Amino acid sequence: MNPIALRLESFTSPPPAAQAAITIAEEEAFQNGYEKGFAEGRELSLDALTSALTTLHRDLLTAHKRESELRRDLQTALTPVLQAIVDLLAPRSEQERLCHALTAEIGQIIKHTPGQIITIRCPEDLQPDLADCLERAGILDARIEAADTGQSIVELTAAQGQIIFDPASAIAGLKSIINDIGARD
User: Fold this and answer.
1) Are 72 and 104 a contacting pair, CB within 8 Å?
2) Higher pLDDT, 182 or 179
3) 129, 116, 119, 127: which is closest to 163 by C-alpha?
4) What DSSP letter does each residue of 115-131 carry, written as one string?
5) Is pLDDT of 142 > 60?
6) How far apart are the C-alpha atoms of 96 and 69, rounded to whole Å?
7) What domains can be seen in the chain, in order of their start residue?
8) What is the pTM of this model?
9) Biggest distance spanned by C-alpha atoms of the chain
10) How confident is the model over 11-63, as pLDDT tens digits?
11) 6-36: burial string, b at 16+ Cβ within 10 Å, e else
């Protein structure tokens, strides 16, 4: 038995002209699909980006509004608390700050002009505390006198110089700052 060679034309490659036409058609179809897909994808991407930016903008505005409300609520809640703290603690630290300031100033006066008569005029309720403070600092050249009634200031006089300490002004300054903070926004 001799094998007979069968030749099937349908399984061989198409003629070159037909192959070129198929390649060009495939290339055009690919290019058209690519351009259409690219345009649609770009449009969808821009729509998605625009939507995301709009949502972000809305969320930022909402967050900013919430932050402002929270800040306002905190200021409203904290202002009376801070004022109460100042009201409670300031008088206690007021005498200590006053003693430090007085001893520092008297020390400078004694250092630069020894032998000066130093007079301190203050409210009667401060006199014992100031006397203790001056004694602890070793300042014995100072004389403590009662201030005019109704005055809360402390006056330090030596020769022709005069220094006035107003302890209440520090408290008033702190309260003013607290009120300014509470009034802002």
Assistant:
1) no
2) 179
3) 119
4) T--EEEEE-GGGHHHHH
5) yes
6) 40
7) 93-183 (3.30.2320)
8) 0.49
9) 149
10) 556 556 656 666 777 787 778 877 887 777 778 888 888 889 999 999 999 99
11) eeeeeeeeeeeeeeeeeeeeeeeeeeeeeee
